[in-house]
Known about the structure:
The complex is a heterodimer of chains A (324) and B (553).
Chain A: H1 6-27, H2 38-70, H3 88-115, H4 138-148, E1 154-157, E2 170-177, E3 180-186, E4 189-192, E5 195-198, E6 202-209, E7 214-218, E8 223-227, E9 232-238, E10 243-249, E11 261-267, H5 269-284, H6 299-303, H7 307-310, H8 314-322
Parallel strand pairs in A: 1-9, 2-6, 5-11
Antiparallel strand pairs in A: 2-3, 3-4, 6-9, 7-8, 7-10, 10-11
Chain B: H1 3-18, H2 36-64, H3 75-111, H4 119-138, H5 155-158, H6 161-191, H7 204-235, H8 249-283, H9 290-303, H10 319-347, H11 356-379, H12 381-387, H13 391-421, H14 427-454, H15 468-498, H16 540-552
Helix pairs in contact in B: 2-3, 2-4, 2-15, 3-4, 3-6, 3-7, 3-8, 3-13, 4-6, 6-7, 7-8, 7-9, 8-9, 8-10, 8-11, 8-13, 9-10, 10-11, 11-13, 11-14, 13-14, 14-15
Amino acid sequence: xxxxxxxxxxxxxxxxxxxxxxxxxxxxxxxxxxxxxxxxxxxxxxxxxxxxxxxxxxxxxxxxxxxxxxxxxxxxxxxxxxxxxxxxxxxxxxxxxxxxxxxxxxxxxxxxxxxxxxxxxxxxxxxxxxxxxxxxxxxxxxxxxxxxxxxxxxxxxxxxxxxxxxxxxxxxxxxxxxxxxxxxxxxxxxxxxxxxxxxxxxxxxxxxxxxxxxxxxxxxxxxxxxxxxxxxxxxxxxxxxxxxxxxxxxxxxxxxxxxxxxxxxxxxxxxxxxxxxxxxxxxxxxxxxxxxxxxxxxxxxxxxxxxxxxxxxxxxxxxxxxxx
Amino acid sequence: xxxxxxxxxxxxxxxxxxxxxxxxxxxxxxxxxxxxxxxxxxxxxxxxxxxxxxxxxxxxxxxxxxxxxxxxxxxxxxxxxxxxxxxxxxxxxxxxxxxxxxxxxxxxxxxxxxxxxxxxxxxxxxxxxxxxxxxxxxxxxxxxxxxxxxxxxxxxxxxxxxxxxxxxxxxxxxxxxxxxxxxxxxxxxxxxxxxxxxxxxxxxxxxxxxxxxxxxxxxxxxxxxxxxxxxxxxxxxxxxxxxxxxxxxxxxxxxxxxxxxxxxxxxxxxxxxxxxxxxxxxxxxxxxxxxxxxxxxxxxxxxxxxxxxxxxxxxxxxxxxxxxxxxxxxxxxxxxxxxxxxxxxxxxxxxxxxxxxxxxxxxxxxxxxxxxxxxxxxxxxxxxxxxxxxxxxxxxxxxxxxxxxxxxxxxxxxxxxxxxxxxxxxxxxxxxxxxxxxxxxxxxxxxxxxxxxxxxxxxxxxxxxxxxxxxxxxxxxxxxxxxxxxxxxxxxxxxxxxxxxxxxxxxxxxxxxxxxxxxxxxxxxxxxxxxxxxxxxxxxxxxxxxxxxxxxx
Lengths: 324, 553
């Protein structure tokens, strides 16, 4: 029987690997549904990485598998293998190819990140909402956060898809605390335990951590931003799909970190307006209580409404508790 | 060798022969002993003990996660187990066994020295470890630290402050141990190599330990600084990281990750060194691209110092910083890839002996490809915004640290156990151990990638019920991994006592440690070896045969 030439086999393997990788890249189904403008950007980028990754995976694992079978020690053969110490050209090739791939991925990720709104233009701080007319519970918290960090830079995704920072359609101040999310709408003034946003509108979240670090994550939006106490964090997005999606705390924030969940409701403008109206009426009098069972609340959470009057903050209490 | 050296040599030989014991008695392994070989074994055994404890914590965590509700452990205890599992595995298992254990046992033997440069310092560095480990276990009396191994303030300032303070002291102790050890390695490798060994004849494990030590010396002090400030914040009323008093929580993250990302390389570079030793010996081939592998260790060491912010892409970092560190992180893939390709090419045209050491080495190669590819995706800021702090990360780093580092440690133990003890390990038991570990690793950590992508955050005791079935797969995998340690432990204990004598060089290896007896004499050699060939000249018999044939023809 005649041998098939090695070059032909390599060519066939290359074509097969390419096809399989392309297919896997498009059909991996690993990510949840897309519900924000940024989600398709992230997913396309991920799919490209999956395609390249699959190809590299098949090549390297395939080589390992073939070599370990083909070059196993045969029975009774106690001799050594061939004394090949290297091949300069080959080493150049396998240094160059990964270099090109990672530099390409690096440049591409800058592009994707820019489209996601990650680069704040100069002077963007003026755009941050400084409304001090908050609801009863959140007012001291937000005011405190604003006063403490007047000139700090803002972190997070801060521009819209056009790359500028013109005011968003909906601005929500988000307060994260052990173990709850508070959403403070400024116009009209509403405090809610879940986030409602109109579909297709620019939404800006000003996120603050009230006690420890939390992290705002909506998997369907592919977006995450830590809520850092004492620092300004922003997240801008446009929701693109009606539905209710989980808001997950992604940064370890204490024993009940896993239960710190809420949801974001993406609804039509009409439904959103209606919700605003209903909530406004409901909250007119008396103020709602959104927090959890007080026993489970952290010190800072418990103290928050009184913090300004009595001048105590949670961290002051910690040493006292440590030495009973 | 000069005449003076020879005379000195004879004198040493004479004293050694006159003293009764050429080998240490078993109980001397439990004392303050300055012999690098004893210290190496002390490191390995102590680390393995903590590995078992950390492993039990992991099993407890996985049992809790078999159901979505926090029904097995108190959530605070869950967090304590999760935190201390990470801490133990990093600081009391992988780092001390890979660097302290193999480094101490092998470096002097590989460079042809009689001991490390500073033997007493070496022993002190080791004894800080059991002290630190004891402290960490003691912290459970105060609830155990619960803020993750990263100990981010403000959470670490307000949760279990006594346990957290003990935790900080413990890290400072192992950090000190690491600095002392690294200093010792650098001096030993640079100054105590036998003169007959050229720099390009230095075994690759030594290059790896050199790179590791430099990295540890540069980064460990920064972590210690960061943690001491945290200790002050917790206990003495300072406010370095307290936002309400003018502190900055992100400052801690920079100080922490400036060490703790390089720490990942501290855990993998020595393992890469082990790979470069094990693969050529058992494939019976010279290492492919000695220089590329040696330089890539140094390249990883250098680039590894400038990637730390990729742990903080969702934190307080501006856009330009996220981009800079995306690109620097991706660059690490290049020298890492060079190593992987070099090892795969070493297999080519070899005559691979399927010893347990080689099985784990090839398993590592395969696992690390998976971990590395996942790592590249995580290194890009746009995608990391989605998966940061999720199970995707947990899956990724367990492929690298379990599939990578722990497989490498196992491989190293199977490879050098005969040298350390003079006994062979049982090969069938080794294969069972490998099979269980290989299956268990994939079953536990592969599904975690999916969990993270779908929306499950890490470090949670309770989760969305839709993830239950996948979590149960992981839990089954964890049980298999737990069980995999049993044949290994039996093998070690039984072989150490009753194993088949190994002889000086059971694998026909060419590095210097195999030129002495097993276990080596107290001062390693009666007469220092003379290096005549590179450490990886396998197949040279064939060259000789060929050249003889050509001459004859």
